[in-house]
Design goal:
- This protein is α+β, with helices and mostly antiparallel strands and about 425 residues long.
- It has a domain at about 170-185 and about 210-410: Sandwich (Jelly Rolls), CATH 2.60.120.
- It has 5 helices and 14 strands.
- It has helices at about 30-45, 170-185, 195-200, 250, 255, and strands spanning about 205-210, 215-220, 225-230, 235-240, 260-270, 280-290, 305-310, 315, 325, 335-340, 350-360, 360-370, 390-400, 400-405.
- Strands 1-4-13-6-7-8-9 form a 7-stranded antiparallel beta sheet, with no helix packed on it. Strands 2-3-14-5-10-11-12 form a 7-stranded antiparallel beta sheet, with no helix packed on it.
- It is rod-shaped, with a radius of gyration of 48 Å.
- Keywords: Membrane, Transmembrane, Transmembrane helix.
Length: about 425
């Protein structure tokens, strides 16, 4: 079916009207000529109106042209042959002017004259998934920063417990302990005399009882050894070493450039009914940075850690339930606790520290002092334990217990 040609409205873009030339058939003095000339001049000031040529242009075809309404749809996306910067090419709407009819299919890919710069493919916003433009560039490779061959991936963090499954301290005692800690800041490390440093190196250390302590019997039978027995009426009590087992100004790896290990053992001679987990008595071993409240066990407050024998959990500045770690102490066990300080991997860092625990001469467990913890978690602060403060050996107990503490290397079952 044909359609009637309609010329476009208005003159073509390049049309310029032409004025007719003046005639010269009359003399210059002819009045008629002068009058006609004036009239003709006034008429010639208005250009003649444009008249479209008659009939359709030569390339017009009276067949109806195919278009989008006749079923043509441009293919989705760029043509298969278009890659890279050509991905933005879109075929023009409708068939070319010379198309005679039928269903038109656009040829694949852009025409040869299509410029990749005219309609370039826009990359997706942002960096590729494997790159984050906000992150700083990685540091240059340093072979001395490599992880040691014997390093292991850290174990998953232990879950914090709210209460102990065996025995829990009185709430008022805990409140008094926190108040005491707030009112008594940590001591600064001291420069110890040579006699004290010699005693530390030889393990000539003994435990002491807090002032006004009742229901406790303490005896030092030989250097580096302390024997303690308590009655069933003994409340939470801590026994601290008379001198530091770690002297920060002499042992800190940041100053000495060598590793340092502190360690001691106790032998459990009796603990309540001697039924593990009964909760009627308990012993805890650990370390504290002084000062520390005398009625609180190691690991319950600032700058202290401990492994508790009644529930087998470990505590670091945690007055709640600790973290599952080992099983309860038994009568006859020889248990030990140590801290191994090492030079940090990076200059300016704090010494690395591994806390380890032994039972009957064998290493039974350990954890990284700087283990990961929740940002908003109050428990687990290691301030005072990172090598910058003097540390005392600490043994806590409640109920009727009996044990012997040993600080001399030759009497240990485990060799650190």
């Amino acid at each position: 079916m044909s359609e009637k040609y309609q010329p476009p409205g208005g003159p073509p873009p390049g049309y310029e009207p032409q004025r007719p030339a003046a005639t010269s058939n009359y003399g210059s003095n002819n009045p008629f000529r002068n009058g006609q000339a004036q009239q003709h001049q006034s008429m010639s000031d208005q250009p003649p109106s444009y008249q479209a040529p008659q009939g359709p242009p030569p390339q017009w075809n009276d067949q109806k042209r195919a278009g989008p309404e006749d079923g043509y749809r441009p293919p989705p996306g760029p043509p298969p042959a278009m890659q890279g910067s050509h991905s933005g090419y879109q075929p023009p709407q409708g068939p070319p002017p010379s198309f005679a009819g039928g269903d038109y299919e656009a040829p694949p890919g852009p025409p040869p004259s299509h410029s990749s710069k005219g309609n370039e493919h826009a990359p997706p916003p942002g960096p590729p998934p494997m790159q984050n433009s906000s992150e700083p560039a990685p540091p240059p490779y340093d072979p001395w920063m490599a992880v040691p061959d014997n390093a292991l991936l850290p174990p998953p963090p232990s879950f914090k417990q709210d209460t102990s499954p065996t025995a829990n301290a009185d709430y008022d005692d805990a409140t008094r302990g926190h108040t005491w800690i707030r009112n008594n800041p940590l001591w600064q490390p001291r420069q110890h005399d040579q006699q004290t440093l010699t005693r530390i190196s030889y393990g000539d250390v003994r435990l002491t009882t807090p002032p006004n302590t009742k229901n406790v019997s303490l005896e030092s039978r030989r250097p580096g050894q302390t024997h303690i027995r308590t009655t069933s009426k003994c409340t939470d009590t801590i026994f601290l070493s008379d001198i530091p087992v770690y002297a920060a100004l002499s042992d800190n790896p940041l100053m000495t450039e060598r590793a340092k290990t502190v360690y001691f053992e106790i032998q459990v001679l009796a603990m309540g009914s001697n039924i593990p987990g009964s909760g009627d008595a308990g012993i805890a071993i650990g370390f504290v940075a002084p000062p520390y409240p005398s009625w609180r066990l190691p690991g319950w407050h600032r700058a202290s850690l401990g492994v508790h024998g009644d529930d087998g959990r470990r505590y670091v500045d945690d007055s709640y339930g600790g973290k599952d770690f080992t099983h309860a102490f038994r009568r006859g066990d020889v248990v030990g606790i140590g801290m191994h300080y090492q030079i940090p991997f990076q200059a300016g860092g704090k010494p690395r520290c591994e806390v380890f625990y032994t039972r009957n001469g064998k290493r039974e467990g350990s954890w990284d002092l700087h283990e990961e913890r929740d940002r908003d978690q109050e428990e687990g602060d290691v301030t005072g334990l990172e090598g910058e403060n003097d540390l005392l050996a600490a043994v806590g107990c409640f109920g009727g217990v009996e044990f012997e503490a040993r600080f001399k290397r030759e009497e240990w079952k485990f060799s650190p």
